[in-house]
């Protein structure tokens, strides 16, 4: 089996590549405009990486599709915002990808953050005829001249946590952003909890996402073709403010030397009102047997270790007169 992963150097791609190389005999081919997050994978047997600029993307993907059995499209998980979705669908090489998959008989697994399509959680037993799924297939998997959608499954991700916490969808200025900057800059500041940080979401570790996507890749399509699957961990429900509190606590436990200044999160609200929107993951379990098992603490521990390494690199750079290191 050959698996082609477009947008493989984003949030999810490296974890998915590692899962496939560990749990299958598949040959994995990846494309992206950059490869900064693929360190340690570029020389691994059974993985081949191609740099794909925007002008060369469609031609390169067509060339790589012919020997591929499954295509995992991760491109929209990198940089597409809700306001950009309509423009992106119209202007990108997405339709060409769908047509090419149909032409060569490749199965398409299309991954998109739930935020980009502005739709609520999919009910556990929703049918393909439901409004949400019909719209997804119309916009994403059925170009105008195609009578039937390509053999495919749409995967919607909710609150994916990787070692870079800035990948969590949120307003640009909020409690978590300010906390990360203070930890890396080694400053003691009071950080108030912002009102927009109180909505409760389900967060999921990127390793759990990679496992479910890997299971979908290895499925022959008999169980999952035409489905829309939500990937989240309802057991990891919390708000951005909660994530910030846990991040500070875990950073203190794992990396604080007892002397360096630490920021403080200040809750100035009189009550804790919050909005809840937790996705239903029973379909993912029914179709693939997948269950997320990494806790919020597991995911955040990897993130605070990354923050600590950035903090130390920034300190070393300052001592040596080098440009500052970013947390991304």
Explain the layout of strands and helices.
Blueprint: E1 2-6, H1 13-23, E2 27-32, E3 47-51, H2 57-65, E4 70-73, H3 76-79, H4 85-91, H5 94-104, E5 107-113, H6 131-140, E6 152-157, E7 160-161, H7 175-185, E8 190-192, E9 201-202, E10 204-205, H8 206-218, E11 228-231, E12 237-238, H9 240-255, E13 264-266, H10 282-288, H11 296-320
Parallel strand pairs: 1-2, 1-4, 2-3, 4-5, 5-6, 6-11, 7-10, 8-13
Antiparallel strand pairs: 9-12
Count of folded domains: 2
Shape: globular
CATH architecture tag of the largest domain: 3-Layer(aba) Sandwich
Radius of gyration: 21 Å
Biggest beta-sheet profile = 7 strands, parallel
Tally the helices. 11
The name CATH uses for the topology of the largest domain is: Rossmann fold
Kindly report the spatial arrangement of strands forming the biggest sheet. 3-2-1-4-5-6-11
* Helix-and-strand structural type: alpha/beta
Give the CATH superfamily of the largest domain. Answer: NAD(P)-binding Rossmann-like Domain
Mean pLDDT: 80
The poorly predicted ranges are 79-91
Report the order of strands and helices. Answer: EHEEHEHHHEHEEHEEEHEEHEHH
Classified by CATH, the class of the largest domain is: Alpha Beta
Beta-strand segment tally = 13
Helix content: 25-40%
């Amino acid at each position: 089996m050959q698996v082609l992963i477009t947008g493989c150097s984003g949030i999810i791609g490296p974890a998915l590549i590692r899962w496939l190389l560990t749990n299958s005999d598949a040959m994995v081919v990846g494309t992206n405009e950059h490869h900064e997050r693929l360190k340690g994978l570029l020389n691994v047997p059974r993985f081949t990486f191609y740099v794909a600029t925007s002008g060369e993307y469609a031609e390169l993907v067509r060339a790589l599709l012919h020997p591929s059995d499954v295509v995992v499209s991760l491109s929209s998980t990198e940089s597409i915002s809700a306001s950009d979705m309509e423009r992106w669908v119209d202007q990108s090489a997405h339709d060409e990808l769908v047509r090419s998959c149909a032409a060569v008989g490749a199965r398409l697994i299309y991954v998109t953050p739930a935020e980009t399509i502005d739709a609520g959680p999919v009910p556990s037993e929703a049918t393909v005829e439901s409004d949400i799924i019909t719209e997804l297939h119309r916009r994403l998997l059925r170009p105008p001249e195609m009578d039937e959608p390509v053999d495919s499954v749409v995967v919607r991700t909710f609150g994916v946590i990787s070692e870079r916490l800035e990948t969590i969808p949120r307003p640009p200025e909020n409690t978590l952003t300010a906390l990360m900057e203070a930890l890396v800059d080694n400053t003691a500041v009071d950080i108030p909890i912002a009102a927009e940080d109180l909505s409760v979401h389900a967060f999921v570790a990127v390793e759990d996402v990679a496992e479910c996507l890997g299971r979908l890749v290895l499925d022959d399509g008999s169980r999952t073709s035409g489905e829309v699957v939500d990937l989240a961990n309802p057991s990891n429900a919390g708000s951005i403010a909660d994530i910030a509190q846990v991040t500070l606590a875990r950073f203190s436990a794992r990396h604080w030397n007892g002397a360096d200044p630490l920021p403080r999160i200040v809750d100035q609200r009189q009550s804790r009102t919050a909005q809840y929107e937790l996705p239903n993951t029973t379909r993912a379990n029914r179709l693939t047997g997948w269950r997320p098992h990494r806790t919020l603490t597991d995911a955040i521990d990897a993130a605070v270790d990354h923050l600590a390494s950035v903090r130390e690199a920034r300190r070393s750079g300052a001592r040596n007169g080098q440009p500052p290191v970013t947390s991304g």
